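Example record for the data management plan.
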Amino acid sequence: MEFDIRILSASIRQGRNSHRVALYLRDRIEEPGRDRATVLDLNALDLPLFHERLRFMTDPPAVAKDLSSSIGKADGVIIVTPEYNGGYPAALKNVVDLLYDEWHRKPVAIVTASDGSFGGTQVITSLQFTLWKMRAWTVPTMMPVPHVQEAFDEAGKPADRTTWGARSDRLLNELTWCMTARRRMDMPDGPVK
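Corresponding structural encoding:
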């Protein structure tokens, strides 16, 4: 059973390091025999600040409609976010609030990154709470990345393939379980008995 996963790279800062983790996860997911992954890079998308949810806009920009479609079609989403002063970036909040129905029961895994030793763990609670309010299905397994600039190079290659392979496998296995459960629950004849 192949899945189509979106990786939302949340940082738009110059010299950002969390994007390295998004590239690593994309490569890991797309290893032979695994799933498909697309990185949605908020820096590259350069979204405007939205003043209204997409579904209430009279003339939404094409970039917003494309983002909505991409998230809506995905079997699951991985959000890779840095921690800024104990929270997540405004660019990510902008995207989360832009959409609504697209998050409903969508399996979402959270990956945090920081240059410090805690790996962005302070951002998990606030992001998870926001996603719960949006009715997303947040995956219980998280993947904090401490000292991200040392853990991954700019192309997303890990310094320690074994450690990050094991950590990412735990995250991806849990996400796969949730995506499988969601797919079964959404079957036309109802859940598998």
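Summary line stored alongside the record: The chain has one domain: 4-185.
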